[in-house]
Amino acid sequence: xxxxxxxxxxxxxxxxxxxxxxxxxxxxxxxxxxxxxxxxxxxxxxxxxxxxxxxxxxxxxxxxxxxxxxxxxxxxxxxxxxxxxxxxxxxxxxxxxxxxxxxxxxxxxxxxxxxxxxxxxxxxxxxxxxxxxxxxxxxxxxxxxxxxxxxxxxxxxxxxxxxxxxxxxxxxxxxxxxxxxxxxxxxxxxxxxxxxxxxxxxxxxxxxxxxxxxxxxxxxxxxxxxxxxxxxxxxxx
Length: 237
Description:
The protein contains 8 helices and 8 strands.
């Protein structure tokens, strides 16, 4: 019924292959909305088990799932939403050759991780493969989302925005996070992913969406590709 989507757009969603890195606070809502929206193929990587403390924000998991692999719990939830979605659940940290292979096979990659090491690795793999990356983060009452489309529209990459010397301790486990912020950010990641697949609207490429949950101040910051970026500086459209 959506003019910007129509049957052709729904078929694009059905054929799409999505890679989600992280099955936590961001990966949960992102995966659920993508599955419910008709995305046909979802691959999820996470090396953790469900902990009781996760349930506050990681809505793909339930009390009965405590102690279960997060990727298995997420897969079960997605099947309850859409039994026809093809889900590959991988309990491992996505690194090295496996990361490169999975990114190469994906149409869009979602970074829903909680550490800078993984974010920079995923960003580099996406730049090398020229695959769209939808990156989200949330901490305390704050969240942010951006889209990177390497090799298209003179897009910056994650490394253009952040240096790989940033603090690894800036994560939810050590700093806390208010639950709905992760839901908001993960939902926006799903929306941006669907726009990329359908090829409609204007994505957050070259823009960083910032949300302050305490004040409900939502703003967008524009940033450009860094010609001296160690990751994408030599990449051409």
